Amino acid sequence: MKKATTKFRGSRQTTEVYVNPADGTAVLNDMYNSLKDLPWDVPVSGTIYGTALNYKGALAALGESVNEKPYQAPPKAPIMYIKPVNTIISYGMPIPLPTDFSEVEIGPALGIVIGQTATRVSEEQAMSYVAGYTIVNDVSIPHESVYRPAVMQKARDGFCPVGPWVIEREAVTNPDELNIRVFINGELKQQNNTKNLIRSVRRLICDVTDFMTLNAGDVLLVGVPENAPLAKKGDVVRIEIDEVGILENHVVNENELVKEVVR
Question: Can you give the residue ranges of the Fumarylacetoacetase-like C-terminal domain (predicted)?
C-alpha cells in the first residue's frame, strides 16, 4: 500500500489514505474499500495547466504542418493552456456530452501536483517541488488547431475529471517511465508511456517556471498522447496509470444532467 491524499464529498479537509494504485483499493478507518465504495471529491485545489504537443508521437502526427504559417517551425517552448474551474469533476462523476456533438476526445494525462511555490526552478531541483501525482482526463471536443486557444473545445463544463487521489512523490519510481492505458467499456483503446515525452517531468517544470510561477496545489499536465480515443453517450471511460491509480467516469448527454438539476 502507498500513501496518498484525497478529499471526500462533504469534507472541507483532505484526508490521508493508503492505497493500492493497481486495483484501486483504499484503506480508510482500518477498512479496505474499493473505488466505488467511497464518495470521492476532487483531490486538488489549484489551477490545472495543460501542455500541448509534449508527446513525440503527437508532434510527429502534425507532419510538415509545423513548418507552415504562422510559426514555420516546431514549438521551442511549452504550449500551455488552462482547464478552468468549471471543467473540474471528480472520480465517478458524469462527463457531459454537448448536445451538438456525438463524441468527445479522451485525453489521459499524468498530473504533476506542485508542493511549494516554484519560480525559475532548475532541472536538478525540479523534483523537490513535486508533492505527488494524480490522473487527469483532459476531455475535449475533437479539433485540429493546436496553436490557438481551444477554449470552446477544451473548457466545457465537466471536461476535466481528476483523481481519485494524489499519490505521494516517493511512491512513484520514475514518472518518466509510466504506462498509461485508456479503456472504453472495458476495451483497451489507447496505451502509451511517459518515456515518450519530449520534455521530461523535470524539464517541463524547469521550462514552465522559467516564465510563470506555479503555486502549491497547482497541477501541471505532462501532455496527452497521440491518437486520442473517442467516447460517446453511455460509454464508461477508465484511465490507468501505473503506480498512480485508476480514474473512471461515464459519458452522459448534457441535457440529462440539466434534468437532474431541475428535479
Answer: 47-252
CATH 3.90.850.10, applies to 39-262: yes
- 16, with CB counted inside 10 A (0-12, 13-18, 19+), is exposed
What SS3 class is residue 254?
Answer: helix
Q: Which three cell numbers stand for residue 136?
A: 487527469
The answer to whether residues 51 and 13 touch, using CB atoms and an 8 Å cutoff, is: no
State how far the Cα of 59 lies from the Cα of 80, in Å rounded to an integer: 14
Supply 65's cell numbers.
504542418
Number of Cβ within 10 Å of residue 84's Cβ equals 16
- Distance between CA atoms of residues 90 and 120, nearest Å: 31
CB 220 within 8 A of CB 82: no
Residue matched to cell numbers 504533476: 112
Query: Left (φ > 0), alpha (ψ -120 to 50) or beta: where does 120 sit?
Result: left
Q: What confidence tens digit (pLDDT) does each residue in 47-105 have?
A: 999 999 898 887 777 666 666 665 666 677 788 999 999 999 999 999 999 999 999 99
Give yes or no for a contact between 199 and 210, defined as CB atoms under 8 angstroms apart.
no
SS3 category, 204? helix
How far is C-alpha 24 from the geometric centre of its chain's CA atoms?
17
The model carries a pTM of 0.93
Closest CA to 14 of 128, 137, 165: 165
Per-domain boundaries in the chain: 39-262
In DSSP terms, 109 is beta-bridged to: 136
